[in-house]
Amino acid sequence: MSNDAHACESQPDHDGVSIRGEPGRESLDQPGPSLERKAKLFALLYSSHEVDRRFRRIHEAMLDQSPQIRAADFTVIGTDDLERLFAHYDREFFQGRLGEMLIEDGSHPAAFRLSRRLTSAAGQTLRRVRRVNQGGRSAIRVDYEITVSTTLLYNTFAGHERTVTVGGLVCSDRLEALQRIFEHELLHLAEFLGWGCSNCKASNFRALSRRLFAHEAPHHDLITPREQAKAAYDIQLGDLVSFEVEGVRRRGVVNRITRRATVLVEDHRGRLYSNGKHCIPYYVPLALLRKENGAS
Ligand SMILES: [Zn+2]
Q1: How far is the CA of 93 from the centre of ligand 1 (A)?
Q2: How far is ligand 1, taken at its centre, from the CA of residue 1, in Å?
Q3: pTM of the complete model beyond 0.70
Q4: 121 vs 188: CA distance, rounded Å
Q5: How far is the CA of 63 from the centre of ligand 1 (A)?
Q6: CATH number of the domain at 227-291, please?
Q7: Ligand 1 centre and the CA of 178: distance in Å?
């Protein structure tokens, strides 16, 4: 899930819908995507009242069952929580169909990851296609991996809040945001399983997201490191800053903000950047930057 509806492919840590080594359909040994699957997934339809009821049930179940998530604004989460969420969502919203299709395709279980490195996309769903040796003959194996950004979750609901939406819906705590991010990624998984490809900018995804989860938009506005840098340090892209390296103060321009800032420092030994200057990039924690006045 991206924070920009149009950024899926262009962001460096993009909202993932990656298909590697896509084989010809005929070489798949498993049932795979089909018209029947599309119909089954499209038959799932909940009113917004029903979505809310099921959503709340999962919210409460997570607080009840997770050894880590003890409060709605939790500070610890494990990958087992994502497995738990998957089980709840598959039962409450997909009538067990995701699990069934994963098993049919020999792709069960899907893998779940938490990542600090996703700093723009809140989640990512990958489909990996590999050729494997099965009893002496070559077969195709499809695997899925869903990743959720802990950087964005922990940046948000940290006490200095503006209204936060995910999927176009207002979230009032960290667990709600996690659920909405997860819903978006499950829609990618459902599309992969039913259609063989997935794109959250396309109408099919939008229709599914409305029918299943009453989502109003495919993006989020969780607090990114870039926004946090502006609020906490008044630092944004293009700012002239200085920092100290081994006793030497260097000046440069902020070029990227993730968990750290990338600062381009002019140096004839560096490579040529689009600003027409030779620079060396430094990766500096935001707290160590000093904002400078003047032109770069
Ligand atoms: Zn997406």
Answers
A1: 18
A2: 4
A3: yes
A4: 14
A5: 26
A6: 2.30.30
A7: 14
